[in-house]
Design the sequence.
């Protein structure tokens, strides 16, 4: 237990730490631009004598500020480590690949660091450019994420999703979000544990349990819409984050209003910390270990962990009383080998994996972003809802949004046995990345793939391997049907309650967030009361 007297120092340090992180982020950005500028023009990168000059400058500034020389020197080293070294690595140029790597499909020849910087800042254009240049199978080398063979041919994707689970491993053990999910998360565990965990959780998000939540979703959506400002611009994405968070909190903890209050604020802080743009960029360069040490991170994560575990313990002590939420399922679960209950760490990782549902909120923000730019489609949907019959068009709108703006651009696996994919013999150990984004934008599968045309899914099937927003195979999103039901309920309820208009007629750009891609303006809209209620 830490000394409570230290709290006031922490309070003074926190804003300063945040400011340092922000300034470092700015510094990163400038260094990156300098390095790119130099590379384009063939200007040599940071030279040893320049490093000595910069160190002298730091020492002089440190002396002015009465900082001890060893402190200033350490600070300089940290900055060189974090930023100037980027230049040196760029200067090294292409690194000769190992024999195993040389046999992989072709891909960009830039150094790993340059590829990582591109991936961090513009992953979708990067994927498109690589496909144009190298075809449907190419290799990316990404720092902290590994060397990926990207697959954009549906035949290859089909093959990957049908490989036996014993021959496929977790694709991203160093996944950037490991500090959030934790090593015991179902998303990061290997077989056979993965399947045991998956089977435990599946019933909570399917069949009867899923249908029981439909009314709760509508009710929460109604409550949310009624809190929106009328007649003034606001961003839909954060509102959808708040709403999907309410839904998932109930799926995980049950309907216990009082208990959820504290967690609500803590989770919102955590979501903001995860999506902080500055942090995301540094995360791509410095890796997940840096994230755990970064200022403000533990402050956002620790209280969520404490609250989640406190609730799990309360449940264990008080008994389940017929509860069927995710906490109860996990608290009652026993390890198959020795009958022991899940440890705190296991509970924490499973629960945090469920609670950090990012894709549903960004997909909902996109549904409205697209529909509001296509009034004819919106009108058709409203007509269907008014008619009160089936929900064919509603379903097609959701499917088309998930096709055009998939929240996740690739799903990654590790080959545990050699496989032949894209015309290449890939050795065991290769990371393969079925590319959701490129598959969804294939002209030979979807006519005018860049256009929002829900009608296509009135006749065309949305299924693996050409429609894969939820991934596929044994690691397909275990809440796919749940998320689709939620999106339908929310979309219907919003249209029944309010009329939305976009603030700008032009569509929003795709911007990158930690878990999913979101509209760059965060879905900027204005709400007004309905002229005629869809509900009537
Ligand atoms: C539109 C909403 C969503 C999208 C697009 C989405 C997408 C995905 C994707 C692409 C994967 C990886 C699949 C793979 O590797 O093949 C995944 C896995 C997973 N998702 Fe979702 N997801 C959504 C909503 C949710 C929700 C609401 C939850 C739970 C509350 C959830 C829980 C999970 C879990 C636990 C896994 C790991 C499954 C496993 O490894 O067996 N997802 N999701």
Sequence:
């Amino acid at each position: 237990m830490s000394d409570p007297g230290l709290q006031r120092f922490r309070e003074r340090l926190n804003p300063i730490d945040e400011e340092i992180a922000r300034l470092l982020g700015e510094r990163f950005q400038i260094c990156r631009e300098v390095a790119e500028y130099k590379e384009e023009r063939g200007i040599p990168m940071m030279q040893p004598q320049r490093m000595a000059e910069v160190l002298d400058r730091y020492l002089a500034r440190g002396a002015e500020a009465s900082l001890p020389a060893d402190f200033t020197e350490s600070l300089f080293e940290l900055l060189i480590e974090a930023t100037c070294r980027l230049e040196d690595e760029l200067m090294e140029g292409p690194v000769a690949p190992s024999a195993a790597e040389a046999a992989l499909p072709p891909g960009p020849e830039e150094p790993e660091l340059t590829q990582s910087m591109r991936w961090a800042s513009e992953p979708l254009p990067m994927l498109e450019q690589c496909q144009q240049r190298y075809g449907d199978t190419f290799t990316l080398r990404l720092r902290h994420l590994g060397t990926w063979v990207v697959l954009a041919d549906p035949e290859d994707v089909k093959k990957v999703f049908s490989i036996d689970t014993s021959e496929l491993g977790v694709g991203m053990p160093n996944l950037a979000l490991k500090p959030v999910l934790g090593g015991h998360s179902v998303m990061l565990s290997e077989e056979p544990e993965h399947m045991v965990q998956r089977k435990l959780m599946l019933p909570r998000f399917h069949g009867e349990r899923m249908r029981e939540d439909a009314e709760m979703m509508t009710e929460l959506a109604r409550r949310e819409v009624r809190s929106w400002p009328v007649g003034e611009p606001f961003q839909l994405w954060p509102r959808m984050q708040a709403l999907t968070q309410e839904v998932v909190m109930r799926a995980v903890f049950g309907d216990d209003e009082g208990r959820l209050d504290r967690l609500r604020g803590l989770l919102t802080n955590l979501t903001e910390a995860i999506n902080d743009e500055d942090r995301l960029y540094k995360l791509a360069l410095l890796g997940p270990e840096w994230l755990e040490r970064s200022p403000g991170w533990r402050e956002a994560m620790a209280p969520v962990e404490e609250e989640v575990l406190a609730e799990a313990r309360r449940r264990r002590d008080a008994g389940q009383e017929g509860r069927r939420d995710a906490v109860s399922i996990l608290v009652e679960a026993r390890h198959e080998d020795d009958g022991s209950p899940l440890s705190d760490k296991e509970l924490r990782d499973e629960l945090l994996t469920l609670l950090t549902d990012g894709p549903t909120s960004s997909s909902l923000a996109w549904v409205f972003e697209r529909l509001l730019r296509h009034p004819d489609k919106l009108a058709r949907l409203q007509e269907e809802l008014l008619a009160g019959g089936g929900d064919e068009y509603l379903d097609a709108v959701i499917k088309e949004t998930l096709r055009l703006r998939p929240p996740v651009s690739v799903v990654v696996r590790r080959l545990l046995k050699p496989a032949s994919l894209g015309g290449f013999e890939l050795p065991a150990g290769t990371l393969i990345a079925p590319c959701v984004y490129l598959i969804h934008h294939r002209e030979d599968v979807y006519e005018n793939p860049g256009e929002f045309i829900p009608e296509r899914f009135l006749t065309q099937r949305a299924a693996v391997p050409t429609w894969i927003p939820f991934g596929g195979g044994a690691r397909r999103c275990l809440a796919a049907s749940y998320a689709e039901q939620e999106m339908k309920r929310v979309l219907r309820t919003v249209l029944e309650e309010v009329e939305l208009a976009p603030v700008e007629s032009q569509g929003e750009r795709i911007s990158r967030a930690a878990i999913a891609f979101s509209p760059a303006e965060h879905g900027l809209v204005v709400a007004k009361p309905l002229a005629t209620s869809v509900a009537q």
